[in-house]
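Narrative of activities, Objective 1.

The group set out to show that a structural description can be obtained from nothing but a protein's sequence at a throughput compatible with the screening campaign. Below is one input-output pair from the validation batch, recorded exactly as produced.
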Amino acid sequence: MTSRERVQAALRHEEPDRVPLDLGGNQSGIHRGAYEALLCELGWDEEVAIVDTVQQLAQPSEAVLDRLGIDTRYIRAKGAESAPVRLAEETIRGHPYLSLTDEFGVVWSRPLPDGKYHDITHHPLAGATTVAEIEAYPWPDGGDPTRFAGLAEEAAEFRATTDQALSTGISGVVYETCWYLMGFARFYEALAIEPHLVEALLEHTLQYWLDFEAGFLGAVGPYVDVVMVGDDLAGQDGPLFSPALYRRLVKPRHAKLYELIHAKTSAKLWYHSCGAIRPLLPDLIEIGVDVINPVQVSARGMDTAELKREFGRDLVFWGGGSDTQHVLPYGTPEDVRAEVRRRKGDLAPGGGFVFTAVHNIQSDVPAANVLAMYDEARG
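Output recorded for this entry:
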């Protein structure tokens, strides 16, 4: 099988010749520190490009992707000329940071010289108390056509000249964008006692993503195999807010966005949420989700054998291949191999499984463990 055939078979819940492997997404990537260590282990000298500034994810080279046997590649929208991302050095509480202001006006900052990630240091709507303030905010244009210039040609050429599966980067972040803007605690306070503010925020973020997906999939929809969306709905022990609130405020907006996506492409709809998401999986299936990621195996209720038994007919599991909280960073290579064998044994039978680690490979993961994980998964 080619890589594309392998991934497509898994997405159809058919067993391919081997489990397809993924690396390089915004939730299935590798931190630049771990990538540099991997290059050192391989004895390769190459310049490291960053594909996700906030998470500091490296863009794996074709040589590395081939060495690991990766079956997927990614296509992403560009920055909008109408709202360019800005990078600047600044001092925060007496310490130097590199700060990124995104198109929503949220500021993400990374300590200099060697901070691992950018974290939010400014929530521009933290002080908003009225719907009028939210309506007056300078919302970015999700449909700015400069985002999509040249993507149709790029995707068509990829489809014609390669045999890998093609996925989009992450998009459709409807509710998390709201707390980026307002602040985590303030947003959850509003969710409980000022839902009218939350609904006003959600309407704007939904419209942004509706416009974005219409333009993006208008360009790449015929050529991609997977469209990735996501909103973290759960933490380690369960949903971050009640399923009833999800069903009243967020789910109808998710459903509207996913209906548009399915109308624009035949690609499978891939949903990312960390944590103990099991209680909400029936809701996601109901509104058109085909694939779930990252399958956080260390969270409550996320046993892979049980998930496969309960939801394996309806969902493809994209992730869950190795526990990134415990085994991958702290185990031996043989521990990692044993973990991979266990997860493949749970999730691969009957198809419906694309292998990658649980979320991104973090900076402290030994290169020997990265190689052990992918070599065992491929075997």
